[in-house]
Amino acid sequence: MDHFTIVQALCRAAIADASPASRKQIERLRDTLAKDGNSKQAAALTSILTTADRTKELSPSRIERSKAQSPGELLSRNTPVPVDRETAAPLADVIFPADIQPAAPLFNATVSQAIGTIIEEWANFDALSEINIRPSKTCLIYGAPGTGKTRLALWMAQQLDLPVLLVKLDGLVSSFLGTTARNIGNLFTFANRHRCILLLDEFDAIAKVRDDPQEVGEIKRVVNALLQNLDARRDVGFTIGITNHPQLLDTAVWRRFEVQLEIPKPDFEMRKAIAAYFMPPVKAPDIHLRLIAWFTEGSTGAEIESLVRTYKKATTVREEDRRGLLDTLRQFATLNAARVQSERRALLFDDSSNLFRAMRDDPILGFSMADIGEIAGKDKSTVSRQLGRAIKSSDGEVANG
Predict the structure, then answer these.
(1) Pairing between β-strand 164-168 and β-strand 138-143 as defined by DSSP bridges
(2) Domain 93-263 in CATH: superfamily?
(3) What angle (nearest 5°) sits at the alpha carbon of residue 205, between those of residues 201 and 211?
(4) Per-residue pLDDT tens digits for 366-391
């Protein structure tokens, strides 16, 4: 081929950041040259393709390149973590990306989009650096227990391919009150030396309001030590704090976190999605998922998961021992009374006609007579008669009133 050196240079430039289509064309050219007897030229293109493959295998991803911008030693499974001097108890656990579930936690679209921006910032570390901007390096995640805060933090670490240094601050305080400040200093020194995400769980255990008259002077000194260490780490690595009690946090603590992410309790559609996520391998009808979502109003993801486990048990036992959905819900409400909204619990144990009426009239649930009948194990006419009695009873009460 004439001017092959130019063609070779073009191929080498194209393969550096090649799309699948570009690579395919280079492979077609190589095969054509080989077929026409230009074995040396075909071999040259083969060498270009092979070199590109090896470079791709060895080159870090965008996120891995970003990690290289953060100085620090690699944290391995053999790296000893700091311990308390008096008890030799480890002050933290190390969790590696390979040990974290890769499935993204379920949140509403607004929260998911916000989380995505944090991941994108780190994935585009180099581009941000060019305009003198850095990714957010501190994040406070707060919300009710069971809303998935810790799971979210671990998933973010998995996405960033960074190990997690997990510190349970409540245990640290209760066990080592006299040396807590020193232990905190040792933990931050260790975290700052390694490439990792520092995850401070039960953050409110230490970061309490400093002017609380119920707190001893030691805790106040510990809070100050924590603030100083957070300040020192801002330019070093990624730190995540988690709390169920944001109202207990010192205002100075809030200012240390660039991102302050509240995880809300799931709405109806998210509760249904969470139920569907935990349901396999059991296949539940859509109306069952909708009723579970309706029944769990005000519940967290962890509470919905617990109900789904109860449902799966009830549908898997012997045929003669199986419970209907309403009986399963009543069983769960009895064993988990504090986790079920009182209004929903009252309807479950009230006259079934009142429950049917509430199910029919709820616009979010959107049940037809046939849906109610299928769930209750009754035909439509029976459901209709029971609803008629409920309406007459309600009208009578209004008239008497």
Answers:
(1) unpaired
(2) P-loop containing nucleotide triphosphate hydrolases (3.40.50.300)
(3) 140
(4) 888 889 888 888 887 787 877 776 66
